[in-house]
Design goal:
single chain, alpha/beta, Rossmann fold, five-stranded parallel sheet, 5 helices, globular, disordered C terminus
């Protein structure tokens, strides 16, 4: 079972993601800000991170940079899930190390499709290495 770290301070959004992703047999971990995201990523090594940009304390871009520049977590696929839809926002996310970017409000199937795509690719690469 894959583990997904969902980082967002919006409890309603977390509950919706938790419900949908749990139905798809993913284990969900919650973090409510960027500092908690970095801590949980280091401690738990999730298979994928869904990360909001606008959060209290440490924002998502700062958290993404930290996750992507730390040896133990740098290869975890990270999808920004945010209301920020400007070209500069998208560019900043990719510069911080994000692997993908989805704008809120989103279609749950789009998020699920992206997650499946990243985890299938990651699993395929791991199997290839062990062949």
């Amino acid at each position: 079972m894959y583990t997904i770290l969902v980082v967002d301070d919006d409890e309603d959004l977390f509950e919706a993601l938790n419900f949908t992703l749990s139905q798809s047999h993913y284990q969900i971990i919650q973090a409510k800000d960027g500092a908690e995201a970095v801590s949980k990523a280091l401690e738990l090594h999730p298979d994928l991170i869904l990360l909001d940009i606008m959060m209290p304390n440490v924002d998502g871009l700062t958290a993404c940079r930290k996750i992507k520049t730390t040896e133990e977590t740098k290869d975890i696929p990270t999808i920004m899930l945010t209301a920020k839809d400007g070209v500069k926002d998208v560019a900043a996310a990719f510069q911080a190390g994000a692997n993908d970017y989805i704008v809120k409000p989103f279609i749950m199937g789009q998020v699920l499709g992206k997650i499946n795509e990243f985890l299938r690719t990651e699993k395929g690469e791991k199997e290839e290495l062990h062949s």
